């Protein structure tokens, strides 16, 4: 993929001309670097690239994610030392693969979610580009932020228990539906939407902005892989920090039946968490771990999506796939 990426950087304008759609205005060789042109992706390519990006990113940080969630839904005090002890105890008790327990259920959610989110983001960029007169070019700041927020909201509108309680995802859905009611499956949906807006908006905005600034400053239409990872890491750090309190609230509401709490509303859940644990230790519990896993996951996700898109476009141009 890196070789294809380097090829793309050497022939940036030619690649864009080869991949353009009828009616799309393309830059001439003398175009200013400030007008960064974006090749128009196919929906199928975006879906495939997004699915792969989400699966790889979540799998890479699954042990850290699982540990963070366990602390989020409990009243136990979080620290890096305690998180390490939990991971180590889980490894000793249940084995190495137990650190990925529940990852299959996560993949069922993450793969379609990531596919829809990335595809929606590409389509919203095209849509907003047409409205604001930036078709085929990098969007200005406000539409760029709006495209990410709308993509996250679109995707969102489409487990932390002992091994003995839930064996697999079918068991999870069956037990929750039978013992707690079908509406429990959607508990936490409102804070999810409220959290997705700043998270997706800031993440996509930051990543797209850094790529645009990079193209303007370096003169290269495509960043190197390690630069994409760095841009994605910055995007994940900012996005997850902004939306973290709502993520804690969502986890508490979704696992209320398991943990024995009765959380009703977002405001009520926040008040209870703050009253019992404080603002920082409650609403930001596990944030330091998120500062480790978040940049890794988002960096992998954005980089995988971009490189897969480049690979699929190259294969299309070489005649290996059909549009």
Automatic annotation (TrEMBL):
InterPro entries: MCP, MCP_dom_sf, MCP_transmembrane. It is found in: Membrane. Its main location: membrane. Signal peptide: none annotated. GO terms for cellular component: membrane. It is a multi-pass membrane protein. PROSITE patterns: SOLCAR. The keyword Cell inner membrane does not apply. It comes from the Eukaryota. Keywords: Membrane, Repeat, Transmembrane, Transport. One of its GO terms (biological process) is transmembrane transport. Solcar repeats lie at residues 41-127, 143-213, 223-311. Belongs to the mitochondrial carrier (TC 2.A.29) family. PANTHER family: SOLUTE CARRIER FAMILY 25. This is Solute carrier family 25 member 42.
């Amino acid at each position: 993929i890196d070789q294809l990426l380097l090829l793309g950087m050497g022939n940036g304008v030619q690649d864009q001309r080869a991949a353009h759609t009828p009616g799309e205005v393309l830059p001439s060789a003398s175009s200013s670097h400030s007008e960064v042109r974006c090749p128009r992706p196919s929906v199928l390519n975006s879906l495939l690239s997004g699915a792969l990006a989400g699966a790889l990113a979540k799998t890479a940080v699954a042990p850290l994610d699982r540990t963070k969630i366990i602390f989020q839904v409990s009243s136990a005090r979080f620290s890096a030392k305690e998180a390490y002890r939990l991971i180590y105890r889980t490894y000793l008790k249940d084995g190495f693969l137990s650190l990925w327990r529940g990852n299959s259920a996560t993949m069922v959610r993450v793969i379609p979610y990531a596919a829809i989110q990335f595809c929606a983001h590409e389509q919203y960029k095209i849509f907003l580009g047409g409205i604001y007169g930036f078709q085929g070019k990098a969007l200005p700041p406000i539409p760029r932020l709006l495209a990410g927020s709308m993509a996250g909201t679109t995707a969102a509108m489409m487990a932390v228990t002992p091994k003995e309680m839930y064996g697999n995802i079918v068991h999870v859905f069956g037990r929750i539906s039978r013992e707690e009611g079908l509406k429990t499956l959607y508990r936490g949906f409102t804070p999810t939407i409220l959290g997705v807006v700043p998270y997706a908006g800031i993440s996509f905005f930051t990543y797209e902005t850094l790529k645009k600034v990079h193209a303007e400053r370096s003169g290269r239409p495509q960043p190197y892989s390690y630069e994409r990872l760095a841009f994605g890491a910055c995007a994940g750090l900012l996005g997850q920090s902004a939306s973290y309190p709502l993520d804690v609230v969502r986890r508490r509401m979704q696992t209320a039946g398991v943990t024995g709490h009765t959380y009703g509303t977002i405001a009520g859940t926040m008040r209870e968490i703050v009253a019992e644990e404080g603002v920082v230790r409650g609403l930001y519990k596990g944030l330091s771990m998120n500062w480790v896993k978040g940049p890794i996951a988002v960096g992998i996700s954005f980089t995988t999506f971009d490189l897969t898109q480049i690979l699929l476009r190259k294969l299309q141009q070489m005649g290996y796939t059909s549009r």
